[in-house]
Amino acid sequence: MNDARWLALLCTSRAAFSLIFTAYSALLPLLLDAWEMTSARAGLVQSAWHLGYLLSLFGAGLLVDRIRPRATFFWMSACACVFAAAFALCASGFWSGLVLYFLAGVASGGSYTPVLTMIARRFGPAQRGTAMGWYLAAASLGYAVSMFACSAAALWAGWRAGLCLAAGATVVGALLGWIALRSDHDDRPHALSSLPWQIAVRRLWRNKPAQLAIWAYSFHCWELLGMWAWLPAFLVAVSMNAGEQRNGALATGAVLAGLTHLLAMAGSIAGGVLSDRIGRIRVILMMSCASLACSFSIGWLAGSALWLVGLIAVLYNLTAIGDSAVFSTVLTETVPQDHIGFAFSVRSVLGFGMGAISPWVFGLVLDAGNATMTKQGAWGLAWTSLGIGAFLGPLLTLRLRERIPKVYT
């Protein structure tokens, strides 16, 4: 199979897998009432997904270096189908939603880390950033489809219909991935599989560029995953503030949130392409500083015109995701090939660990703000909490620029 068709199939697979990633977020305005949750509890359910996902990515990274990446993808994707179906069919309140969404996240990393590893091996440095950009753009397409389709299904047949739609897409993603990878034989495990994990930790610890890249990505995840969790609910609140009725506001919020994810595809692709042309670090700094500006401003605009908030939301999602592919590319270029899986595992624990906390912290700040100040002030403080947590990312990236070859800066 040629490279373009191989990548296209995997991108389509990734898009289908990604519906379950944001299905809960898309349906959050409905689930807040249906499951009788506070904002903090609602954020905690999203955090449970991220916690499960980080465990999934950590396990997938270790398996990639010890068994074939293709086998890792197959087995974890099958499990993802089962757990996604369990969440869609059985979740009925806060506690069941918390546990089952956690389990849905536990297997979902099989569609990410193994494929990134295979992309890094298949494409040379001149095309690697672009290829990873397309793969992450496919996820943004899936998030957008989730916002549109799951919300539409929920308004038509209830919130469970939206979850079932996302679970069905997980099955489609697994089948497409199997078609792409069934004849791929260049995915043998590497030498790290024979090394004790303590040696792998020591080697990664001594790799200062890799350390900086991992920590910068982790602070980036605080902002990105918190934003993805709460943006739909925020846009619904802005729509209701503008005078729309509940169902109309739900539809408007879902459409706007989906549009931000759809246009974020351009951010992933542009970030990857630009990183191949003008340098990895330059693109990371451009994107991260722009998204920080959005974190510190969007919440305070809750009482503004919907078109203005929607415009900022589009820019926010586009720039927040725009450096994700570049971070992944940098990591593959700062560690040896036989360490890539382990490096992705460590990065997953730190990055998605922060991403698991930020939606919950956001909800806590929002609840506290609602109890003591105006809704606009509460949203402003909640979004500012994402910017504060992400602020160290660009600073660490500046330090990284001093430690990697000039061609990548």
CATH-level-4 superfamily name: MFS general substrate transporter like domains
**Which structural class best describes the helix and strand composition?**
mainly alpha
How far the N terminus sits from the C terminus, by CA atoms, comes to 33 Å
The CATH class is identified as: Mainly Alpha
Helical coverage, percent range = over 70%
Q: Give the helices and strands as they follow along the chain.
A: HHHHHHHHHHHHHHHHH
Q: How many H/I helical runs?
A: 17
The fraction of residues in strands falls at: under 5%
| Rg from alpha-carbon coordinates | 20 Å
Low-pLDDT residue spans = 189-194
Average pLDDT confidence is: 83
Number of domains: 1
- What name is given to the CATH topology? Growth Hormone, Chain: A
Model description:
The protein is 83% helix and 0% strand. With 409 residues, the chain is mainly alpha-helical. It has a single domain, classed as MFS general substrate transporter like domains (Growth Hormone, Chain: A).
